[in-house]
Amino acid sequence: MTTTIAVFGAGAIGCWLGGKLAAGGADITLIGRPRVLDELAAGLTVTELDGPARTLAVVVDGGEVGADAWSPRVRTTTDPAAAASAMITLVCVKSAQTAEAGATLARILPEGSIVASMQNGVRNADVLRAALPGRTVLAGMVPWNVVRSGPGAYHRGSSGTLMVENHRGASALYAAIHAAHVTYSARTDMPAVQWAKLVMNLNNAINALSGIPLKAELSQRAFRRCLAAAQREAIGLLGAAQRSIAKLTPVPPSWMPRMLELPDSVFRLVAAKAVAIDPQARSSMWDDLEAKRSTEIDQLQGEVVALAKRLGRPSPVNATLVRLIREAEAGGKRDFTADELWAALSSRTP
What we know:
Helix content: 40-55%
Largest sheet: 12 strands, mixed
Mean pLDDT: 92
Shape: globular
Oligomer: single chain
Order of helices and strands: EHEHEEEEHEHEEEEHEHHHHHHHHHH
Number of helices: 15
CATH architecture of the largest domain: 3-Layer(aba) Sandwich
Strand order of the largest sheet: 9-10-3-4-5-2-1-6-7-8-11-12
Distance between the termini: 55 Å
CATH superfamily of the largest domain: NAD(P)-binding Rossmann-like Domain
């Protein structure tokens, strides 16, 4: 039996993941805004860091495709009600939209539905669980950087393993991921996984403020010192709160700040073994600033600042990054050199 999956939130992650799952044989419906879906009418193309491109036919808003249309294909719609008939719903909206998504899905999804949060941050699955009693909500962690590379085209620009909460009712989801040739792991420690991803994602703000691709940013030691300071602060606070951090790369989380501070030539050798990054990849926060959208800073650096407040401790580095991103959202500076950003953070003036 074909696995039917609704992707609620057809942004970069939703379109790429939906396209890959469709290429693996799943029946995919992308639910999103006209701004994105209109671009997909001519087809959806997903490309890989290290693999071939796949182009899928698109069926728009309940239309039909003839028998001669190329396959696989995806359906697109702006109507959330399309999720009602899906076996699985993947929630891929931005974190600030999670509560609204939960309220919408609560009116649509039948009892017993499987829902998986494929979002940044550490709270989204809990927000969805509160909104969706009687449904099974799983936490997920998407490790890749995905960018829109052109109209209807989405590119995975970094390596990593997709992680989904281990649950006996999610076998169809795991099978669909496996059929799509996506590396994944079913985990029993998703809170630790999500905190580990958040620690890594502290670079999103730094990359957004640098204005340059991720690989170019991380090639500069002063930018890496900024990230090391943000990570060291977060790891210290998580330790004080007795929260576990999963190991997602060959480098243990506690070693990451020290690795980032290595000289450039040494860092390149070590980093090449930890994660692969496309030369043109940028953070999703850079994309949001470029498109003049609100960022997920509250769900990244903001979570570190909130944790510090609960512990009665300072968080000057991450608080400064929150401030700088807020200023960039309002039209302020977003092209810091490495030395400028390091100076702003090392001054410890939130």
